[in-house]
Structure to design on (177 residues):
Protein backbone atom coordinates (compact mmCIF):
# COMPACT_ATOMS: atom_id res chain seq x y z
CA UNK A 1 0.00 0.00 0.00
CA UNK A 2 1.96 2.98 -1.30
CA UNK A 3 1.23 6.61 -1.72
CA UNK A 4 -1.10 7.23 -4.65
CA UNK A 5 -1.39 10.45 -6.67
CA UNK A 6 -4.78 11.11 -5.08
CA UNK A 7 -3.13 11.11 -1.64
CA UNK A 8 -0.53 13.62 -2.79
CA UNK A 9 -3.25 15.81 -4.29
CA UNK A 10 -5.29 15.67 -1.08
CA UNK A 11 -2.26 16.57 1.01
CA UNK A 12 -1.30 19.41 -1.33
CA UNK A 13 -4.78 20.92 -1.44
CA UNK A 14 -5.10 20.52 2.32
CA UNK A 15 -1.79 22.32 2.84
CA UNK A 16 -2.89 25.14 0.52
CA UNK A 17 -6.22 25.47 2.33
CA UNK A 18 -4.53 25.44 5.72
CA UNK A 19 -1.86 27.95 4.72
CA UNK A 20 -4.39 30.29 3.12
CA UNK A 21 -6.63 29.98 6.18
CA UNK A 22 -3.76 31.02 8.44
CA UNK A 23 -3.07 33.98 6.15
CA UNK A 24 -6.77 34.98 6.25
CA UNK A 25 -6.65 35.47 10.00
CA UNK A 26 -3.09 36.76 10.26
CA UNK A 27 -2.88 39.39 7.52
CA UNK A 28 -3.40 43.00 8.55
CA UNK A 29 -5.20 44.13 5.38
CA UNK A 30 -8.88 43.21 5.06
CA UNK A 31 -8.83 43.09 1.24
CA UNK A 32 -5.85 40.75 1.24
CA UNK A 33 -7.62 38.62 3.85
CA UNK A 34 -10.61 38.42 1.49
CA UNK A 35 -8.37 37.31 -1.36
CA UNK A 36 -6.69 34.67 0.82
CA UNK A 37 -10.20 33.51 1.72
CA UNK A 38 -10.81 32.93 -2.00
CA UNK A 39 -7.70 30.74 -2.12
CA UNK A 40 -8.71 28.79 1.01
CA UNK A 41 -12.26 28.19 -0.24
CA UNK A 42 -11.01 27.28 -3.71
CA UNK A 43 -8.63 24.70 -2.24
CA UNK A 44 -11.52 23.32 -0.21
CA UNK A 45 -13.55 22.99 -3.41
CA UNK A 46 -10.59 21.16 -4.92
CA UNK A 47 -10.63 18.77 -1.98
CA UNK A 48 -14.31 18.08 -2.65
CA UNK A 49 -13.53 17.38 -6.32
CA UNK A 50 -10.79 14.92 -5.40
CA UNK A 51 -13.22 13.17 -3.04
CA UNK A 52 -15.74 12.77 -5.91
CA UNK A 53 -18.26 15.22 -4.46
CA UNK A 54 -18.62 17.31 -7.60
CA UNK A 55 -21.90 18.96 -6.66
CA UNK A 56 -20.60 20.04 -3.26
CA UNK A 57 -17.46 21.40 -4.91
CA UNK A 58 -19.37 23.55 -7.39
CA UNK A 59 -21.78 24.74 -4.71
CA UNK A 60 -18.70 25.70 -2.69
CA UNK A 61 -17.33 27.69 -5.63
CA UNK A 62 -20.62 29.37 -6.51
CA UNK A 63 -21.84 30.17 -3.01
CA UNK A 64 -18.72 30.81 -1.01
CA UNK A 65 -16.10 31.90 -3.51
CA UNK A 66 -18.53 33.59 -5.86
CA UNK A 67 -21.01 35.16 -3.47
CA UNK A 68 -19.75 35.44 0.08
CA UNK A 69 -16.27 36.71 -0.76
CA UNK A 70 -17.62 39.17 -3.34
CA UNK A 71 -20.14 40.36 -0.73
CA UNK A 72 -17.31 40.80 1.79
CA UNK A 73 -15.20 42.80 -0.64
CA UNK A 74 -18.17 44.95 -1.71
CA UNK A 75 -19.04 45.61 1.93
CA UNK A 76 -15.50 46.78 2.62
CA UNK A 77 -15.44 49.00 -0.45
CA UNK A 78 -18.93 50.47 -0.06
CA UNK A 79 -18.69 51.23 3.65
CA UNK A 80 -15.43 53.08 3.16
CA UNK A 81 -13.89 51.19 6.05
CA UNK A 82 -10.29 52.06 6.83
CA UNK A 83 -7.92 49.77 4.96
CA UNK A 84 -4.62 48.81 6.45
CA UNK A 85 -3.17 48.17 9.86
CA UNK A 86 -5.13 49.49 12.81
CA UNK A 87 -3.37 50.44 16.06
CA UNK A 88 -6.23 49.13 18.22
CA UNK A 89 -5.80 45.65 16.72
CA UNK A 90 -2.09 45.36 17.52
CA UNK A 91 -2.36 42.86 20.35
CA UNK A 92 -0.04 39.98 21.20
CA UNK A 93 -0.53 37.13 18.77
CA UNK A 94 0.81 34.42 21.05
CA UNK A 95 -2.51 33.98 22.85
CA UNK A 96 -4.41 33.56 19.59
CA UNK A 97 -1.79 31.18 18.24
CA UNK A 98 -1.94 29.14 21.44
CA UNK A 99 -5.73 28.87 21.43
CA UNK A 100 -5.93 28.22 17.67
CA UNK A 101 -3.15 25.64 17.75
CA UNK A 102 -4.72 23.86 20.71
CA UNK A 103 -8.11 23.79 19.02
CA UNK A 104 -6.54 22.49 15.79
CA UNK A 105 -4.65 19.71 17.57
CA UNK A 106 -7.76 18.74 19.53
CA UNK A 107 -9.90 18.66 16.39
CA UNK A 108 -7.30 16.63 14.49
CA UNK A 109 -7.06 14.11 17.35
CA UNK A 110 -10.85 13.84 17.48
CA UNK A 111 -11.18 13.26 13.73
CA UNK A 112 -8.34 10.76 13.57
CA UNK A 113 -9.81 8.80 16.46
CA UNK A 114 -13.34 8.93 15.05
CA UNK A 115 -12.61 7.82 11.49
CA UNK A 116 -9.34 5.87 11.58
CA UNK A 117 -9.00 6.45 7.83
CA UNK A 118 -11.88 4.12 6.98
CA UNK A 119 -13.84 4.49 3.77
CA UNK A 120 -17.58 4.94 3.98
CA UNK A 121 -19.61 3.53 1.06
CA UNK A 122 -22.10 6.02 -0.35
CA UNK A 123 -25.72 5.00 -0.79
CA UNK A 124 -27.04 4.88 -4.37
CA UNK A 125 -28.60 8.03 -5.76
CA UNK A 126 -26.17 10.48 -4.17
CA UNK A 127 -24.29 11.54 -7.28
CA UNK A 128 -24.27 15.02 -8.75
CA UNK A 129 -26.79 14.08 -11.45
CA UNK A 130 -29.37 12.74 -9.02
CA UNK A 131 -29.02 15.65 -6.59
CA UNK A 132 -29.15 18.22 -9.39
CA UNK A 133 -32.25 16.61 -10.85
CA UNK A 134 -33.94 16.66 -7.43
CA UNK A 135 -33.03 20.31 -6.81
CA UNK A 136 -34.24 21.59 -10.17
CA UNK A 137 -37.41 19.48 -10.34
CA UNK A 138 -38.71 19.42 -6.78
CA UNK A 139 -37.10 22.53 -5.29
CA UNK A 140 -37.04 24.94 -8.24
CA UNK A 141 -39.52 27.45 -6.73
CA UNK A 142 -37.65 27.90 -3.42
CA UNK A 143 -34.42 28.11 -5.42
CA UNK A 144 -35.78 30.99 -7.52
CA UNK A 145 -37.33 32.75 -4.49
CA UNK A 146 -33.95 32.63 -2.79
CA UNK A 147 -32.24 34.16 -5.82
CA UNK A 148 -34.76 37.05 -5.88
CA UNK A 149 -34.29 37.54 -2.13
CA UNK A 150 -30.51 37.72 -2.52
CA UNK A 151 -30.88 40.20 -5.38
CA UNK A 152 -33.18 42.39 -3.25
CA UNK A 153 -30.68 42.26 -0.37
CA UNK A 154 -27.86 43.33 -2.69
CA UNK A 155 -29.89 46.24 -4.09
CA UNK A 156 -30.90 47.26 -0.56
CA UNK A 157 -27.28 47.20 0.59
CA UNK A 158 -26.25 49.44 -2.29
CA UNK A 159 -29.08 51.90 -1.62
CA UNK A 160 -28.32 52.04 2.10
CA UNK A 161 -24.60 52.49 1.58
CA UNK A 162 -24.98 55.31 -0.96
CA UNK A 163 -26.85 58.22 0.62
CA UNK A 164 -26.69 60.22 -2.63
CA UNK A 165 -29.12 57.83 -4.40
CA UNK A 166 -32.64 59.21 -4.29
CA UNK A 167 -31.65 62.33 -2.33
CA UNK A 168 -33.35 65.62 -3.14
CA UNK A 169 -31.24 68.36 -4.68
CA UNK A 170 -31.24 71.25 -2.19
CA UNK A 171 -31.17 73.98 -4.88
CA UNK A 172 -33.90 72.76 -7.23
CA UNK A 173 -35.90 70.53 -4.91
CA UNK A 174 -35.88 67.77 -7.54
CA UNK A 175 -34.87 64.24 -6.70
CA UNK A 176 -31.74 62.78 -8.24
CA UNK A 177 -31.45 59.29 -9.68
Amino acid sequence: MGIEPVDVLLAGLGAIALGAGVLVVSTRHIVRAGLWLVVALGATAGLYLVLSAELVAWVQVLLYVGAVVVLLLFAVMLTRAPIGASPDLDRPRWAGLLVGGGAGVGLAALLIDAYRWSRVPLPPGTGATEIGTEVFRTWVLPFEVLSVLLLAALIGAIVLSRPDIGAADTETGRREG
In short: The CA atoms of residues 9 and 50 lie 8 Å apart. The radius of gyration is 22 Å.
